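Re: weekly structure request thread

Next one in the queue (521 aa):
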Amino acid sequence: MSGSIFIKKPLDLLMKEAGETGENSLKRSLGPVSLVSLGVGAIIGAGIFVLTGAAAAKYAGPAIVLSFILAGIGCVFAGLCYAEFASLIPIAGSAYTYGYATLGELFAWIIGWDLILEYAFGAATVASGWSGYFTSLLQDFGIYIPPSLMATPGADLVLYKGHWQLLSNLTDTLKTANVDPSTLQHASGVFNLVAFIAICLVTTVLVIGIKESANLNNAIVMLKVSIVLVFIGVAGYFVLHHPEIASKNWHPFIPPNTGNFGEYGWSGVARGAGVIIFAYIGFDAVSTAAQETKNPQRDMPIAIIGSLLICTVLYILVSGIATGVVPYGQLDVPDPIALVADYAGLGWMGRLIKLGAIAGLSSVILVLLLGQSRVFYSMARDGLLPPFVSRVHPRFRTPWLTSIVTGVGVAIFAALFTVREAGSLCSIGTLLAFVIVSVGIIVLRVREPNLPRKFTTPWVWFVAPAGAISALLLMSALPWPTWRRLLVWFAIGIVFYFCYGVHRSKLAQPPTTDSKPATGG
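Done, posted below.
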């Protein structure tokens, strides 16, 4: 068994799987526009509408702009490695598949288990934010959902300025306004029905078909990017015409460190980058759609790099404008971009920004659940998960059972459990995936230097190590509790692998085995 855990999946077998057609295979229907849209859909969401304010207020101040640049550079390094793998091995599974081909089965299992942190827990976290924005928008129009169905069990909500909101999100606001929380009407959460329904609806779309999912995502992306551009235009106009306000708020650009690592100063810039990597969560989910792409060798690199560059520019502009309009210490609120609009005298944009946030978070949930189901699909085909997970619907040509199981599991998690710490956990999971993909490219270049590559990572002996090192540095800037949770998660995964996966692995079976590859059906 010790030898089999490091067995590698042959590239010729991967290419054979990539060329499969028929009702038991995934349907190739995505082009470059849909793929870029998937990338933008995964990236523009919680990061731009929520994390920007919190990271600026707690860690980096106005230098949150540098945090986004640092995180973006690290993502581009990793993205170039993803692009080479995706064009070379156009298979659903993303970093899991790449790890299987280069580092062996145990590493593949580890990264597959890690991707659950990134995709499934990420979707649950985003669904919680979606619920908050959606119920807030409804309350703007006088539509009230029972507060017990707006939050997880035991969550304390208060009625403030006509809106039911989490007390934990209002602590600083109430203190500044000299409002005693005990004087407000309270309610306790029982079940976050709004988040549950949101994930169920997205799961239904994913089951119906990849093309339908992509079309819905395209429409959502157009809406939210338009709203972000409107915000940049009108708030940027305010900054240009009130340079004295911006100059005051941007000074000092890098606030002095408080004496604790990660609290402002350059260490704060680094920690801010490590935390906001969650803003980029899911760009690698584009590569999980490689098996459903018409021309993956050409289109996957365009989509991965294109979506990264577009979103990094938008993040830099939004964070720079936000800290120019509002003192960074006041941005730690659930809706920092709406607060910026209020400061700039653009109160009319409040509802528009909420609509953009709802659209943004919707597409993030869609892409993350799509990515998770495709990773599970690939793992089941390799025997590391039960066979039913890889079944493809004969009509819709989607991995429908795993989509439903994943969707229901994430919906229940989002409805019942607090996910406040899940953001950092998703970030560390994402960064670990970057490390393995970057190392995998180096291994493949050494082992298979003459493979015909449609896309090659430029300056690979610099870019790939830089991708791995930058991800490790960002991981090191994350707090110890996040690392502790990661180690516990991996311990559970290793037990599962040695109790099930190592015995059922198709590659580890003797050549004379009668078992057939799980192609679904």
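The chain has a mean pLDDT of 84. The chain is about 65% helix and 0% strand.
Next request, please.
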